[in-house]
């Protein structure tokens, strides 16, 4: 089992633990703000399951029907996660509106807030693990899950402070008001997750820094060639697709041109291990005198 799959499975277990703690905190207090925190945790579990399925599909090897692999499955998972986040926010708004109309007295606040604080601490630790490992493994699903959890951690901190104020001041209206703020924050988080995932589905190029590294490697390792032009990149999950035209002297043999391509590919894969590279070799009269000039 891959490291990505193990982390995705861990997310489900952590999500269930946090959901149980937050549900207990809500049942003890009756706070609608704590209920909103628990509702978001239900989404956490659902999205963790969706991420696990997507990662499993994304790791399938290329086949006849999908010659470029199944890597984009993770982007679909992230889009689904964003949609579920928005649904959770709407449910929270509904509960907050009812609570505005009929404010509720918060009971056993101390114990409930303590339990919710423990749940928030667990989420904070796991959020750090997901984002750090997701970036290392280049998994959009894990990174999206981690960013969602980060929003949950921030929301939980706000809920703890707000419910504490509602109890100490006696202003019951603070409880639903805080739940509404949590819902707005969650809506923004859901939109950001969807937007970042759509960029991958639309074959967005690699970040500028990565592109600069690719250009530098080509320029340094293409000794014997003249230039490289029409460089294109895109990313899908952990895989980066790179293709470009390499111009060589018209008298260069096929074997020599192949050696140059092999050298460039080896260096690019050292920088991007999961890269899939396509190089189209052209004679010098095809040169555009632009793109990447060989050092």
Automatic annotation (TrEMBL):
Q: Does the keyword Lipid metabolism apply?
A: no
**Which keywords, in A-to-Z order, does the entry hold?**
Cell membrane, Membrane, Transmembrane, Transmembrane helix, Transport
Note the topology in the membrane: Multi-pass membrane protein
Pfam entry (one): ZT_dimer
Q: Which GO terms describe its biological process?
A: intracellular zinc ion homeostasis
Family membership, please give it: Belongs to the cation diffusion facilitator (CDF) transporter (TC 2.A.4) family.
Protein name as it appears in the record: Protein p34
Q: Which organism is it from?
A: Paracoccus aestuarii
The organism's taxonomy opens as: Bacteria, Pseudomonadati, Pseudomonadota, Alphaproteobacteria, Rhodobacterales
